[in-house]
């Protein structure tokens, strides 16, 4: 039965009346010193007193400070439980105004059609969009959630109609093949591979502290691991009539549907032998972590070249061409190359250096973050480690005193056949720490060929800030 009218009016009168806020006003409250506000739906909450009580740790809840909870809550199913919502209501302080709708992008903006992104990503450039996840989330799961996978775009994201999409496969002598997305799915066996992709500029910000470099100021998050699904590039090339082996130097070139104002597409290439090798696991991928490729990550089809710099894993793939020369693209011929520290922009000659393919061994500390204050007792240090070319990470050494003494971290990850360790290892070390200590945490990884990271940045500095793989250093203090 419905409650009597007088009861309804009494309940409405008793309900608290909340002030209205704009999203900009909420966004000013991002740290405990000035209060931490978040939104859920149209409600505003002051969660400052809950930050230290958060079961996932204060760092995780502070990722949403000044913004919406929903994108972060979606990562963990527990947030949908009724008791969590009831707990949140205790911290309500206001409501969003009725006019707080997201702004409409300009129709004249070439980036207006870009997809929505997770607000927790740390943006290095908006147009084109380039962003990385918060470092403290990187080692939380072996597979990086699609919405938190780093995004490296060079141009506006193309809008592709999957029903009319065609992939062109071409080669010398007029050999050509055109495949729809459905034909790629039906004609070729689906293959899955777990592989880490890393931008050549990962950790570039550290190089810029030695001397200025040109490029996006990536921290340690331009790297991620996913389970990719699609057709083997090898199967498609063999189906098109290309032989398993060719004499001389040959390449397989890729072009994307993203193009600059002059119509030039993004392009890259890999050696022919890698493209045709059954052990290289090169994919024409249409799935990422069991789901359709997101638009930012190449929908409807991308190349995934395991063990190789991410720049060669071309997104929004439109054309595959077998050629006696590497891709003529700017990004193959005049970018993504490493040089000596003595080379500057007045003396650089891109013709003198090979294009980056396999990347060197790499590792980084994801927890704790630089400048953090950690409590005395047991400190858990976490991070990732990876090496190019399918070389397995066999050890990660961790120091708390800047490299004077070392401990060996515990590794976790998937075991792979020799030479096909395409995915990173996550590592962890728990150590006792005492109040009043100042720690300089350092990590360095060793791969199966006993390659090891250099101890400092200066000797490997280069004008583009690529291949930044020196020991990763994080300074923290221990106090109650």
Tell me briefly what this model is.
By secondary structure, this protein is α+β, with helices and mostly antiparallel strands.
Number of strands: 26
- Helical fraction equals 10-25%
Oligomer: single chain
Q: Strand arrangement, largest sheet?
A: 9-8-17-12-13
- Shape assignment: globular
Estimated radius of gyration = 25 Å
User: Describe the biggest sheet?
Assistant: 5 strands, mixed
Our measurement of the CA-to-CA distance between the termini, rounded to an integer number of angstroms, reads 56 Å
* Helical segment count: 11
Class inferred from helices and paired strands = alpha+beta
Residue-averaged pLDDT, rounded? 92
Please indicate the percent range of residues in DSSP E strands (runs of 2 or more).
Answer: 25-35%
Poorly predicted tracts of residues: 7-13
């Amino acid at each position: 039965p419905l409650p009597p009218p007088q009861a309804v009016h009494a309940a409405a009168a008793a309900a608290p009346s909340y002030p209205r806020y704009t999203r900009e006003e909420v966004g000013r409250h991002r740290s405990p010193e000035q209060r931490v506000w978040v939104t859920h739906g149209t409600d505003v909450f002051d969660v400052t007193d809950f930050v230290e009580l958060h079961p996932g740790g204060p760092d995780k809840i502070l990722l949403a400070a000044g913004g919406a909870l929903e994108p972060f809550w979606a990562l963990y199913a527990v947030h949908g439980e009724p008791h969590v919502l009831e707990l949140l209501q205790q911290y309500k302080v206001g409501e969003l105004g009725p006019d707080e709708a997201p702004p409409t992008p300009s129709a004249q903006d070439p980036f207006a059609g870009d997809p929505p992104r997770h607000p927790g990503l740390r943006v290095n450039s908006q147009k084109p969009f380039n962003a990385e996840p918060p470092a403290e989330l990187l080692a939380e799961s072996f597979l990086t959630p699609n919405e938190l996978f780093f995004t490296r775009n060079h141009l506006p994201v193309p809008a592709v109609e999957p029903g009319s999409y065609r992939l062109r496969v071409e080669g010398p002598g007029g050999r050509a093949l055109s495949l729809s997305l459905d034909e790629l799915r039906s004609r070729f066996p689906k293959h899955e591979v777990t592989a880490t992709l890393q931008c050549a500029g990962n950790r570039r910000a550290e190089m810029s502290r030695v001397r200025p470099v040109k490029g996006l100021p990536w921290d340690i998050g331009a790297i991620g691991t996913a389970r990719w699904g699609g057709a083997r590039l090898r199967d498609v090339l063999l189906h098109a009539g290309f032989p398993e082996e060719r004499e001389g130097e040959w390449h397989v070139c890729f072009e994307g549907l993203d193009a600059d104002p002059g119509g030039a597409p993004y392009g890259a290439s890999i050696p022919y032998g890698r493209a045709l090798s059954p052990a290289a696991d090169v994919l024409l991928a249409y799935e990422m972590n069991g789901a359709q490729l997101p638009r930012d990550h190449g929908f409807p089809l991308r190349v995934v070249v395991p063990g190789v710099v991410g720049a060669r894993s071309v997104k929004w793939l439109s054309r595959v061409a077998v050629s006696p020369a590497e891709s003529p693209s700017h990004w193959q011929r005049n970018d993504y190359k490493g040089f000596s520290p003595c080379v500057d922009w007045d003396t650089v000659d891109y013709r003198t250096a090979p294009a980056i393919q396999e990347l060197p061994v790499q590792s980084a500390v994801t927890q704790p973050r630089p400048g953090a204050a950690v409590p005395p007792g047991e400190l858990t240090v976490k991070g990732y480690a990876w090496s190019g070319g399918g070389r397995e990470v066999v050890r990660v050494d961790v120091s708390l005193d800047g490299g004077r003494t070392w401990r060996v971290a515990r590794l976790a990850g998937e075991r792979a056949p020799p030479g096909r360790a395409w995915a990173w290892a996550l590592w962890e070390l728990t150590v006792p720490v005492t109040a009043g200590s100042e720690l300089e945490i350092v990590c360095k990884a060793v791969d199966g060929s006993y390659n090891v990271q250099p101890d400092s940045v200066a000797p490997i500095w280069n004008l583009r800030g690529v291949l930044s793989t020196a020991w990763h250093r994080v300074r923290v203090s221990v106090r109650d």
